[in-house]
Specification:
- This protein has about 180 residues and is α/β, with parallel strands linked by helices.
- The chain is built from 7 helices and 6 strands.
- The protein has a 6-stranded parallel beta sheet with strand order 1-6-5-4-2-3, with helices on both faces.
- The protein is globular.
């Protein structure tokens, strides 16, 4: 199933719509169960955001890993896709990717993750991660850049539990 790339609705759109998921074109049969425990990689150069997001997601029952920049995130994703030694390492269901970071920004990291997701004989598993591009700058240009780089959806920062749940509401996630 191909999941359309989208941008989260604005707060006004959410307030005036009882079904923003349907309006955004996301398939109803792809809704993530509320009790589904996920492996989430949070990528941000702000220690405060990493801590806040980790605590929030862990309270929801998810397993959280963090990375301080895009290069570290790309390496972590590569390790999960090409690992043949340690069976305890499994892939991430969701990647929350800040777009503006030092070393390697989120746009480049998303693009590189998409390129290493292509099937290869060395891969332990083939998968396409659900990537949420995040930025405090939520103008149209930033949103389009995230989606063009390969993000499934854009989510403005700061975000809360409801915003996160809305962002993954349409994700079809491999377990």
């Amino acid at each position: 199933m191909v999941i359309p790339q989208t941008v989260l609705p604005t707060p006004t759109e959410v307030a005036t719509s009882t079904n923003h998921v349907a309006k955004s074109g996301l398939a109803a049969n792809a809704i993530v169960a509320a009790d589904q425990s996920l492996r989430i990689l949070v990528v941000d150069d702000s220690p405060a955001i990493l801590k806040m997001a980790s605590m929030m997601l862990k309270k929801l029952g998810h397993t959280v890993a963090t990375a301080e920049n895009g290069q570290i995130a790309v390496n972590m994703v590569r390790d999960t896709l090409f690992n043949t030694q340690d069976n305890s390492i499994s892939r991430y269901n969701i990647i929350l990717m800040d777009l503006q970071m030092p070393v390697m920004d989120g746009l480049e990291a998303i693009s590189r993750i998409r390129s290493i997701e292509s099937p290869s004989p060395d891969m332990v598993t083939h998968t396409r991660h659900w990537i949420i591009g995040c930025s405090a700058n939520s103008d149209t240009e930033t949103q389009e850049a995230a989606l063009s780089a390969g993000a499934n959806i854009f989510m403005p920062k700061p975000f809360n539990v409801t915003t996160f749940c809305n962002a993954v509401a349409g994700a079809q996630l491999d377990q």
